[in-house]
Design goal:
CATH topology of the largest domain: Aspartate Aminotransferase, domain 2
GO molecular function, one term: transaminase activity
Bound molecules: pyridoxal-5'-phosphate
Number of domains: 2
Strand order of the largest sheet: 4-12-11-10-7-5-6
Organism: Actinomadura fibrosa
Cofactor: pyridoxal 5'-phosphate
Largest sheet: 7 strands, mixed
Number of strands: 17
Number of helices: 15
Family: Belongs to the class-III pyridoxal-phosphate-dependent aminotransferase family.
Keywords: Aminotransferase, Pyridoxal phosphate, Transferase
Strand content: 15-25%
């Protein structure tokens, strides 16, 4: 892992603080102890200070580890040939990746693909197609669900804090509680175009929804003439076990949405993989939904190489997932005063603290000690742990030793604050 000499850290943070989002710049400065990121490989990131930190964060992108060699080679190949599409001529990377995804997810059912760059692009596309297909300008989503922050995606994201300032501009979405008859009840009240659901809620705190519940909801949505969109942007591609959790659980979604790791941890890429029925509006009008960089050749080349790495993830998954499950259980046992609950599904672990402040402290302490992790966006008392599949046993042990020390330190600070408050 080598990095070319870069600018001084002070210059980088001054520029970030003055011209990017100052609050985020400050958090990054604290997490990196005043250094910025310079290089990465596997589960580790090198900082400008020369220090190396373990990466269990990164918005769940480096599932295959940072800079997997086959993905880098594929992207270099695309850059050497034709890095940007004309959009007017066929591009082989996009076409072949679409065929691979169609063969991989639910062959014969989910046969059409639309590419975007971010997860929210895929959410926007799927919602737009479902609304146009059914002619119903309303959708159902789930309490605790996260689907992105662009306006359409935010309409289905269940995050009152981020929705509040733009509520009046958001589309018509109702959020149902995780109860078996919630979708049937909603259908009886008013028609909806689609149900969008994360089989494992990532930003909602690492919660897996029961397969029985998902199957019942899907049947009820279909009975009501609505479509089912499985948002697997965070939990799919084997992060939580199967390539698609919804397909593996027999939910029969009309589309699976992928993103984050789809570009191999190297390029931005997302996809809607859906039925011809969902894609009918594009059969009627091919230009109903297009975007300049959708199906970007270098991203699709990365995606093709990433899919080749999925078998390797399947091989590593049992060992890393078991270490993660053991590690969070040990944390809960060791820190009952500040850890309220823990859970994990595959390579998505979650530590629920007794409050948002102590979770924030634990994250900052972990960063200082050499582990990157993040609070869940819409449930900030929960710290998510997202180890890459290539994480070694020694790295997992290091991560949990850091988390143990961080919890101890955060617990002491909480106890001190409480005693000052009561004294
Ligand atoms: C399940 C899910 N859907 C959608 C998104 C939005 O993806 P992006 O941030 O790439 O737009 C996220 C991001 O965390 C996500 O976890």
């Amino acid at each position: 892992m080598t990095a070319p000499p870069g600018p001084a850290a002070a210059e980088v943070f001054a520029a970030a603080s003055a011209h990017l989002v100052a609050g985020i710049a400050e958090r990054q400065r604290i997490l990196g102890s005043g250094a910025y990121e310079t290089a990465a490989e596997g589960a580790e990131v090198r900082l400008s200070s020369g220090r190396t930190v373990l990466d269990f964060g990164s918005y769940a992108v480096p599932l295959f580890g940072h800079r997997p060699a086959p993905v880098l080679d594929a992207v270099r190949g695309a850059l050497d040939g034709m890095p940007v599409s004309t959009r007017l001529l066929a591009n082989p990377h996009a076409a072949l990746l679409a065929a691979r995804l169609a063969a991989l997810l639910d062959p014969g059912r989910l046969s059409r693909v639309s590419f975007g760059l971010n997860g929210a692009d895929a959410v926007e596309t799927a919602l737009k197609l479902a609304i146009a297909r059914t002619g119903r300008p309303s959708v159902l989503a789930v309490e605790g669900g996260f689907h992105g922050k662009s306006m359409g995606a935010l309409a289905v994201t269940h995050d009152p804090l981020r929705r509040g300032p733009v509520q009046g501009f958001l589309g018509d979405a109702r959020h149902v509680p995780p109860e078996p008859d919630a979708v049937a009840r909603a259908a009886a009240e008013a028609p909806f175009a689609a149900l969008i659901v994360e089989p494992v809620q990532g930003e909602g705190g690492g919660r897996a929804l029961p397969p029985d519940l998902l199957r019942r909801w899907s049947a009820d949505a279909h009975a009501a003439g609505a479509l089912v969109l499985a948002d697997e942007i965070q939990c799919g591609l084997r992060r939580c076990g199967p390539v698609s959790v919804a397909v593996a659980e027999g939910v029969r979604p009309d589309a699976v949405l992928l993103g984050k790791a789809l570009g191999g941890g190297v390029m931005p890429l997302s996809a809607v993989v859906g039925t011809p029925e969902l894609f009918a509006p594009l059969a009627a009008d091919p230009y109903f939904h297009t975007a300049t960089f959708g199906g970007h050749p270098a991203s699709c080349a990365a995606g093709l190489a990433a899919l080749d790495l999925l078998d390797g993830v399947a091989e590593r998954l049992p060992a890393v997932a078991a270490g993660l499950a053991r590690g969070v259980a040990d944390l809960a046992a060791a820190h009952p005063g500040i850890v309220a609950d823990v859970r994990s599904t595959g390579l998505l672990g979650a530590v629920e603290f007794t409050g948002e402040a102590v979770a924030g402290l634990a994250v900052l302490e972990a960063g200082r000690r050499g582990l990157l992790a993040a609070q869940s966006l819409s449930r900030p008392a929960v710290v998510k742990l997202l180890p890459p599949a290539v994480t070694s046993t020694a790295q997992l042990e290091r991560a949990f030793a850091i988390l143990d020390a961080s919890c101890r330190s955060a617990g002491r600070r909480v106890a001190r604050t409480a005693s000052v408050g009561s004294g």
